[in-house]
Amino acid sequence: MEMVLKQEHKKASYWSSVWRRFKSNKMALAGLIFIIIITVAAIFTPWIAPYGYDETNYAHTFEKPSRQFIWGTDDLGRDIFSRNLYAMRNALLIGFGSQAVVVIVGVIIGAIAGFRGGTVDTILMRIVDIMYAFPTFLFNVILVTALGRGIHIILLAIGITGWAGTARLVRGMAMSLRNADFVEAARALGAKEFYIIRKYILPNMLGPIIVSIAFGIPNAIWMEAGLALVGMGVRPPMPSWGNMISAGTGYIMAFPHMVLFPALLFALTLLAFTYVGDGLRDAMSPRGEV
Amino acid sequence: MALFKYILRRLLTIFASVVVVIIITYTLMYFAPGEFFNINSFTASAGKVSTLTPEQLQILIKGFEEKYGLNVPLWKQIWNYLKDAFRFKFGPSFSNPNETIEAQIARRFPVTFALAILAMLLAVLIGIPLGILAALKKNTWADYFAMFISMIGSIIPAYLIGLIMIIVFSVYLKVLPTSGWGTLKQMIMPVIAVGLGPMAVIARFTRSSLLDTLSQDYIRTAYAKGGTEREVIMKHALRNSLIPVVTVIGPQLAFLFTGTVWIENLFRVPGLGQLFVNAAAQRDYPLLVTSTFILSLSVMLMNLLVDVIYLFLDPRIKYE
């Protein structure tokens, strides 16, 4: 009982020291606050947005920002602020959703390869090598061309093409943890394999996996925008930052606000996730512990 | 000998990867909507809208099947494609039946290659000095400026950078053309747009690598032996800190090759990326499979090249 208590205490102190170091990084903290705000906004978008994303109003096309339409309107008289909110919702859905796919596939493949070793490892790692070699953007275009442009398909496509790096990461950690002294000790004391994985292996893998998610989310959002720019992203009228920017490109001279707002919000979101990722990596890396 | 074996093994991996890429792409395209590869469903749907008699339609489809080799099962089609692909014979495309795909590729590949290489040169020739400057003048305005440029380059997508440049240099200043490829003036903006992202990464990596090296013991030793600042930096610090920079160039090259896809479409550069996007948009499946194959192969060969260069530069690395 005492041992368990001690362990709980130690665990809490690790995460609280991570949080303490993370907090001291002002940019990372600002990024986190920004992400929390946009996530809340994304969840409640249908209630916050003053207009629907496909609510056209031909009496008010190409309007500059005003009291009625705070970020102006686009070529079909749709409210750009509302469309940005929906685009943000889609971006976060794609970001978090695709990373869920990445983590599930990557952790399973990587853990099996790392713990089993031998032929299984060789075969799985050859598959990972090939996935790694296939240029991600091209693979995404191919998948979306074949399967369609629904938001869930895009989310799945980005996940399917992105797990190779996570699998390598997890495999590396699994191989070193498998033979770590404290795992050997637990095994010698008669701990079951599943107990060891749950109690010792997973908590040790958590940090690097969280960091990889933090960097994976902006990459996924970026990937959707990249697909949209070549006409392969979320299908209009459903807005995404990519398709709003690419639609606005045609009117950029006369009505720059059509590109400006989505581009700004898009860049800020990527920046926020990148800073949070940097902050988490620094806070969790053992080298940070002096 | 070990090097030769290493390269041979890598080439085998690339060969296997390319075969898998083709199989995946071809299979996905076979089942893609439109089903051009599936001749039965094509016949059924064409019969509904065509004004031709069934016999005329049969002849037309037969000709189409033979021209594109679609009159055999999927595995046979892939096998035939693979056989032809390694002799660089791809036949005609759907959208341009009078020209072979290899002729289109041959025309466009040099353009994309030039764009990628020029952008990489720009990234290396500006990124490395910028990183060195930032490291040597750590925590001064020069450092902050270099890191600000680097942040802009890594956060703002190449497409937006291109767009901003078009507004500034083409529309307002009217000094550079918005599209095309061939003259120096036409090349400036696409090269900068593609190269800025990799430049940012290289600058940041150079900075941290050099700072890391400067804190090593052997640098202190070199100073202790009476080396001047200039000598120590040029002879000991720079050489050792630039070797790891080569490792980021490999992934950046891959990134850069796909980055050309957007920039070629924005600036109407007649390269492979534009070919790839047009093929996807027009559902020109043979062309899509082939341009994916060529782009993937280019990326993999570039990565191999960078790894081999790295092996030459760092004698500590063993070919595993």
Description:
The complex is a heterodimer of chains A (290) and B (320). Chain A is mainly alpha-helical and 290 residues long. Chain A contains 12 helices and no strands. Chain A has a domain at 94-285: MetI-like (MetI-like fold). In chain A, α4 packs parallel to α8. Chain B has 320 residues and is mostly helical. The radius of gyration of chain B is 25 Å and the shape is elongated. The interface between A and B is large, with 35 and 40 residues.
Question: Helix and strand layout, with pairings?
Answer:
The complex is a heterodimer of chains A (290) and B (320).
Chain A (H helix, E strand, L loop, with lengths): L1 H23 L1 H18 L1 H4 L31 H37 L1 H16 L2 H12 L3 H10 L3 H15 L2 H8 L4 H37 L11 H9 L7 H28 L6
Chain B lengths: L1 H29 L8 H11 L4 H15 L5 H12 L15 H36 L4 H15 L2 H15 L11 H31 L2 H8 L4 H38 L5 H10 L3 H29 L7
Q: What would a concise description of this structure say?
A:
The complex is a heterodimer of chains A (290) and B (320). Chain A is mostly helical. Chain A contains 12 helices and no strands.
Low-confidence runs of at least 5 consecutive residues of chain A: none
Share of residues in helices of chain A: over 70%
Helix proportion range of chain B: over 70%
Helix and strand element order of chain B = HHHHHHHHHHHH
What fold name goes in the CATH topology slot of one domain in chain A? MetI-like fold
What is the straight-line distance between the termini of chain A?
31 Å
How would you characterize the largest beta sheet of chain A? Answer: none
CATH class of one domain in chain B: Mainly Alpha
**CATH architectural grouping of one domain in chain B:** Orthogonal Bundle
Largest sheet geometry of chain B: none
CATH class placement of one domain in chain A: Mainly Alpha
Enumerate how many helices of chain A there are, as a single number.
12
Q: Give the beta-strand count of chain B.
A: 0
The first-to-last residue Cα distance of chain B is 13 Å
Biggest interface: A-B, 35 and 40 residues
